[in-house]
Amino acid sequence: MNSQLKSPFPGMNPFLEMNPRWQEFHGWFIRELARLNSSKAREAGCLLGVERSIYQREPDGQLVLVGELDAFAGPDLSFLQGERPIQPGNATALVEPKAVHEVTLDPSQMELYKQDYLVVRQAGRFTRILAVLELLSFANKEGSYAPKYREKRMRLLTSQAHFMEIDFLRGGENPSRLMFPELQSTPYFIFVARKTGCGRNEEGYPIRLQERLPVIGLPIGLGRPDLPLDLAAAFESAVSLCIEMAEIRYQDEPVPDPPLSTEDADWIKSQIDQYSLS
User: Fold this and answer.
1) In degrees rounded to 5, what are phi and psi of residue 92?
2) Helices (H) and strands (E) in the chain — how many of each?
3) How many Cβ atoms are within 10 Å of 276's Cβ, its own excluded?
4) What residues contact 218, with CB distance under 8 A and at least 6 apart?
5) pLDDT digits (tens, 9 = 90+) for 32-81
6) How sure is the predictor about 5, in pLDDT bands with cuts at 50, 70 and 90?
7) What is the pLDDT of residue 2?
8) Are 163 and 190 in contact (CB under 8 A)?
9) In whole angstroms, what is the distance from residue 92 CA to residue 95 CA?
């Protein structure tokens, strides 16, 4: 195989930790996880899919959840006329507002945060959510959207659904890591909240740069075995769909921030040197 078509690294590629590369990779990774594991989920009596949350910034600066992407198909735009609906002649009289403040939204300035995530539902008539998997993005870890994501995260933790959070970004804050001070500090981390009858077991999986991404079990409950997710296979498939490895100039580009430890920086340099010679 041409060395320019594969990554120099056995696991996570830190050169993906920058936009727009990360934005592309994020969407493909979630979708490839779903595609590669759909048949295993069906065998377990589950449905596996990708859903999306969209938050929009209002003129007052507040971020509000505006729904799923499909909700915008064929919208009714009659409200853009700016007129109040005419009431029929025999309608009950409605009180008139004492004040009206018009808010105009400029589509060119509307800030949207879109977050794809994987959902496992119980197959059948009642498609109860069994598990949710999130791959963290930059917006989840820093900036004005991060508090909104943490609110969603807390709702998931206190729900009946199992929860997995994958962090392949070295930068930003991740409260899941702080919950495991006994574990070694690593660039990447996976957190699993496995629900029990009266609470949950919280599991931490530190991942080093030098390691191949693992096969990790996603709890799906109801006496079923965990759904084995091959993160390496999904990673490699996603990268092949969205990134031309030959376009990453490893010898010339710096590794995206934050700075690496001396050990990791030396290891990355040796991997790139071998890659360039192959």
Assistant:
1) -65, 135
2) 6, 9
3) 11
4) 120, 131, 133, 162, 164, 192, 226, 227, 228, 229
5) 999 999 999 999 999 999 987 665 555 555 555 554 433 222 333 333 33
6) low
7) 40
8) no
9) 10
Cα torsion 262, 256, 55, 220: sign: negative
* Residue 103 pLDDT level (bands cut at 50, 70, 90): low
More confident residue, 106 or 210: 210
Q: Is the pTM of this model over 0.85?
A: no
The answer, yes or no, to whether residue 224 has pLDDT greater than 50, is yes
The mean-pLDDT minimum among 112-126, 172-186, 205-219 falls in 112-126
* Closest by Cα among 164, 155, 168, 154 to 220: 164
Q: Other CB atoms closer than 10 Å to residue 33's CB: what's the count?
A: 25
> Which residues touch 139 (CB under 8 Å, ≥6 apart)?
113, 115, 145, 146, 149
SS3 23: helix
Collapsed DSSP state (helix, strand, coil) of residue 163: strand
Cα 274–Cα 9–Cα 172 angle in degrees, nearest 5: 130
Residue with token string 């990554």? 7
What is residue 133's three-state secondary structure?
Answer: strand
Q: How far is CA 25 from CA 29, 184, 235, 261, in A?
A: 6, 27, 9, 25
Q: Tens digits of per-residue pLDDT, 235-275?
A: 999 999 987 756 888 999 999 999 999 999 999 999 999 98
CA distance 133 to 46: 15
CB 49 within 8 A of CB 34: yes
